[in-house]
């Protein structure tokens, strides 16, 4: 028996080594890709910093011109947030100094109550600053912002109203709003009032109940009766049609419920994230490079515009979702995110050094129905791209 088992064990060991070698090679390849992209980001954002006046934030770049915004615009927190992520990797004091300069003009938005976007404004910027530095002054801004966010909570709806009432909507809640719940959940978990968590989970449950179709795709906007809390209409603002699957909306939903599971460990949220991931990854209109069209039901596919921002958000979300999965399921999430990151790291999506106004990624879509920010760079595409690179490096390279 010993003569039989020894050669067999040797053969199995050899087979094991052969099967592990591609994994090591792939890990080394991804490590090199990630380092290259993060070093590029550090250099490219020097260009973006030079192109952006001190009193505004970058927003986009089109027709050879930089487009900026004041800090009241919903994307204002992404540029300083990306700077902090770059600093986390490089520890370059010049990057930190630029991030701190931008936080100084963003800080007043801790009192922003005109819509739901305070989480994007404050948590992506000050949240990363506090996580990386531990400085109490940053946490104070986060705590104030979390309290501000609760001002838009409607107990009848059990949801945070996204936009103010208008001729189009009574009390609209958009799928994007899930992302701002991280601000509330984090603040509650780090010494804040328990009501912050209660509001966040109530909103998540209301969205779970009303925003999704049976195939796990989501509507963009659900309009509520603010007095009764009953949903009145299910519409889109930025998608191709009311019943279509707007790509960035699906990305927000996937990222949002994955994040909610991180804070709550509620199996309903994990199941929802898995369902959304299946919808996205199994969709017949998902291209081979896995960077989605701006809407999964967009007219004109395959000639419809792609949305690099949706691809970056989905990649980052899948990497976190992989942390809550095992075996083949984890491999599918990570492998899909890997394809997305490889795609985003090369032409036509990634810009050349010194070009694209200093932005990292090209070919994102803001809102085609509004003819706004179509096929341009966007700050949030860059943010989630860099976040995904760092997540892969932290969670998967160390285990390869």
Protein architecture, described:
The protein has helices at residues 2-51, 78-90, 93-106, 118-133, 136-149, 181-189, 194-210, 247-264, 267-282, 308-322, 327-344, 379-397; strands at residues 57-62, 65-69, 153-154, 159-160, 171-174, 221-224, 231-235, 364-367, 372-376. 49% of the residues are buried. Helix content is 55%, strand content 9%. A hairpin with a 4-residue loop joins strand 3 (153-154) and strand 4 (159-160). With 400 residues, it is mainly α. The protein has a domain at 23-149 and 247-397: Glycosyltransferase. It contains 12 helices and 9 strands. Residues 1-22 have low confidence and may be disordered.
Which key phrases capture this entry?
400 residues; mainly alpha; Glycosyltransferase; 3-stranded antiparallel β-sheet; two-stranded antiparallel ribbon; 12 helices; globular; disordered N terminus
Named CATH architecture of the domain at 23-149 and 247-397: Alpha/alpha barrel
Tell me the number of helical segments per DSSP (H or I, 4 or more residues long). Answer: 12
CATH class of the domain at 23-149 and 247-397: Mainly Alpha
Distance between the termini: 35 Å
Detail the poorly predicted runs: 1-22
Shape: globular
The percentage helix is 40-55%
Sheet with the most strands: spatial strand order: 5-6-7
Radius of gyration: 22 Å
Beta-strand proportion: 5-15%
Strand tally, please? 9
Q: Provide the succession of SSEs.
A: HEEHHHHEEEHHEEHHHHEEH
Main sheet specs = 3 strands, antiparallel
User: From the helix content, strand content and strand pairing, which structural class follows?
Assistant: mainly alpha
């Amino acid at each position: 028996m010993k003569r039989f088992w020894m050669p067999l064990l040797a053969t199995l060991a050899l087979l094991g080594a052969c099967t592990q070698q591609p994994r090591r090679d792939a890990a080394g390849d991804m490590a090199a890709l990630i380092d290259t992209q993060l070093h590029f980001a550090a250099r490219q954002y020097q260009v973006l910093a030079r192109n952006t006046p001190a009193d505004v934030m970058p927003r986009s770049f089109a027709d050879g011109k930089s487009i900026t915004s004041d800090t009241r615009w919903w994307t204002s927190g992404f540029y300083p947030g990306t700077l902090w992520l770059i600093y986390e990797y490089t520890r370059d004091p010049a990057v930190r100094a630029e991030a701190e300069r931008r936080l100084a003009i963003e800080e007043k938005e801790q009192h922003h109550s005109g819509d739901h976007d305070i989480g994007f404004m404050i948590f992506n910027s000050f949240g990363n600053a506090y996580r990386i530095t531990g400085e109490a002054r940053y946490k104070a801004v986060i705590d104030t912002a979390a309290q501000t966010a609760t001002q838009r909570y409607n107990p009848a709806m059990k949801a945070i109203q996204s936009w103010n009432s208008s001729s189009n909507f009574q009390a609209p809640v958009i799928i994007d709003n899930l992302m701002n719940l991280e601000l509330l959940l984090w603040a509650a978990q780090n010494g804040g009032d328990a009501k912050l968590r209660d509001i966040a989970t109530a909103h998540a449950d209301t969205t779970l109940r009303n925003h999704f179709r049976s195939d796990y795709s989501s509507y963009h906007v659900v309009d509520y009766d603010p007095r009764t809390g009953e949903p009145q209409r299910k519409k889109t603002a930025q998608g191709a049609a009311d019943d279509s699957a707007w790509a960035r909306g699906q990305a927000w939903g996937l990222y949002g419920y994955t994040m909610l599971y991180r804070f709550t460990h509620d199996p309903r949220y994990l199941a929802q994230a898995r369902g959304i991931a299946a919808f996205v990854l199994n969709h017949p209109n998902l291209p081979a490079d896995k960077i989605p069209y701006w809407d999964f039901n967009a007219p004109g596919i395959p000639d419809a515009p792609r949305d690099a921002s949706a691809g970056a958000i989905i990649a980052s979300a899948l990497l976190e979702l992989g942390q809550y999965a095992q075996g083949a399921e984890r491999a599918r999430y990570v492998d899909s995110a890997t394809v997305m990151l490889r795609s985003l790291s090369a032409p036509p999506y990634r810009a050349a050094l010194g070009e694209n106004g200093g932005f990292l990624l090209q070919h994102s879509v803001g809102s085609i129905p509004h003819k706004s920010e179509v096929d341009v760079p966007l700050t949030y595409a860059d943010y989630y791209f860099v976040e995904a690179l760092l997540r892969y490096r932290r969670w998967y390279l160390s285990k390869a």
